[in-house]
Specification:
Chain lengths: 210, 210
Amino acid sequence: MKLYSYWRSTTSYRVRVALHLKGLAFDTIPVDLVAGAQRAPEYIARNPIKGVPTLELDDGTVLTQSLAILEYLDHIAPEPALLPDDPVLRAKVQAAAQIIAMDIHPVNNLKVVSRLKSEHGLSADEGTEWIRHWMSEGFHAYQALLPQGTTYSFSDTPLLCDICLVAQLYNAHRWGVDMSPFARLLEIENHALKLPAFDAARPENQPDAS
Amino acid sequence: MKLYSYWRSTTSYRVRVALHLKGLAFDTIPVDLVAGAQRAPEYIARNPIKGVPTLELDDGTVLTQSLAILEYLDHIAPEPALLPDDPVLRAKVQAAAQIIAMDIHPVNNLKVVSRLKSEHGLSADEGTEWIRHWMSEGFHAYQALLPQGTTYSFSDTPLLCDICLVAQLYNAHRWGVDMSPFARLLEIENHALKLPAFDAARPENQPDAS
């Protein structure tokens, strides 16, 4: 498999973690978002929303959108499971993942913040404040959904939502979000980053890291 | 079941369609987003991200995030299926749904556009332009993912992505998006809105419509 990925992209990070957790071999094809490589016609033909990641299977099938890819990987390589079998618990894990994937990430995406600056006059500081605001709101909500007494968000092994969380926390540190209200989330991150699959997927361990 | 819903919310609309398609009875509890009812402490206790929809099951279990709720409903009431069994097709349907649910909806959400106006000085016209931009970008990408020759996006019965699309198109019409490049999407909408489940779920047919 080929993973079109950008080292700092949290959505690419999610898929890298899942591939490593499941022991699936893949080649990383870097897509330099800052240089605009996602807008090249040959890339758009694979991924028309002009984002990363894109996963190309060995038969040439192309999959887009990180959460769809994660569920696909969970189907073809069921162990370790990223989603519980119980429908209610599964929905709760997905809802937590979607707080990260819908309420935080899209609003803070590079293309969105760049447009706020280029078209609507936001300064660099205002852009940072925008990013911090949505992360803080989302982390409060995420933390409020968690049960007590588990190592990860809902379980003692990392699930879909933990993958999304840990990738987002990379961004939180990068942008200087005040993490003092989120001790539980930092504990989850601390556990996860000790696992080889998370460590291998970290932005700084990618071939295109700079 | 109780569905906490706002008539114009496209995420509430998604869940209403699924409940009607599957023939599941539910009571609508209106949450007036414009009046700020989603920020009342008793609502936040159910839905800490302060959004709609929220689905409360008969045993008191509370589920949040529309896509997680849709997959839950697909588990407890498998017919008609909202997702195909084949893992690749399933991932493609989910990816299309996620273009709507991640690349369009969150960026245009009421809370996001309100903050752009209140904190960052965007005028009403700039807010409308912002909304139209992301819808147009997302619809182009969505349309590019579709195969030829199906009544709905990927099939001859409506799936998860069609539900997300039809709800988003309501918003596109409301905000005056130029739909001339999106004939295929309008055909899908036209088919869907003839189905009783979609008609019953339309914003204007809700008890809190005004």
